[in-house]
Amino acid sequence: MATAQDVNPVPGPGWSASGAFDLPTIWSTVAKHRPPNFPMSISMFVTVFFEETACCNMLQQGSPVAIGPGQFQISEDIGVRFFSNPNNFLGEQYDSSCTLFGVRGDLTIFKRTKPLHPELTALSTSRILDDNDFSVKMHVKLFQWMQMGLSDGKPKGLDGLLSAQTGNNATAKRAFGDGASALDQMMLPDPNVKPGWSNDEWATYIKKRRSEWVQKLNVARRGFKNNPIPEQQFSKFWEFFLPDGFIQSPTGYMTWGF
Fold first, then answer.
1. pTM of the entire predicted model
2. Which of 51, 146, 177, 222 has the greatest number of CB atoms lying within 10 Å of its CB?
3. Does the CA dihedral 166-172-174-177 come out positive or negative?
4. Is there a contact between 240 and 20 (Cβ–Cβ < 8 Å)?
């Protein structure tokens, strides 16, 4: 099976093997940090991460404004308030005001020269890029923090959380909703699977089913920015991102790892 180091060409600028998640790993990592009964489903988080970075813990290219698989704008005002808040669900506080470029209300970017919370440890990019688990946790906990109204005193449901992620972009919200629904369908047991299949029959099924997964994972990317990751051109990426064992039984693979 292909590993992240085997991926060539990479699915986008800035994608790296060191920050790469495959689908079962990003799914289980979100599940680890997501509160029970949270309005944003695991599939929605995964859809957002896949659309943003193909599920890679990475720094935004160009003038860096965002970081992590969901491209969290950590030096934007809300990011600074989140990391410095003692009730941010991270169990640790940071000053992220000078870590990356900030974003103004008119979407222009700027770089602070003085920290807003000098009493706290400055958040380094390496704290995030060297810890893939933390890169997912910070995004999930940001949304938990916002959902409970700790960001502005206004509790939020799914629509409010998606508005925060997308800048209230209706096209993006619709694309993420469609993408999450498509993933939920693919995670269900496939009634066409026959446990007694031969190795050749399994190989035929995996090839066909991987193509179906590729189409579903590209729903949000196609619906928002029309930037799908083609299967043939990026075959090594898809072999890494969708392991054979996962395709055979998503639920079983998530439970037992094979």
1. 0.95
2. 51
3. negative
4. yes
Contacts of 231 by beta carbon, 8 Å cutoff, 6+ apart: 210, 211, 214, 238
Q: Is 210:242 a contact under the CB 8 Å cutoff?
A: yes
Q: What is the pLDDT of residue 104?
A: 84
What's the rounded Cα separation, in Å, for the pair 194 and 47? 29
CA distance 172 to 166: 6
- Contact between residue 237 and residue 6 where contact means Cβ atoms under 8 Å apart: no
Q: Does 9 sit behind a cis peptide bond, omega within 30 degrees of 0 on the bond before it?
A: yes
Q: How far is CA 81 from its chain centroid?
A: 21
CB 67 within 8 A of CB 100: yes
> Which residue ranges make up each domain of the chain?
4-256
What does the alpha-carbon distance between residue 230 and residue 252 come to, in Å, rounded to a whole number?
A: 27
Beta bridge partners of 95: 122
User: Would you state the pLDDT for residue 63?
Assistant: 84
For 140, other C-beta atoms within 10 Å of its C-beta total: 22
Q: How far apart are CA 7 and CA 2, in angstroms?
A: 7
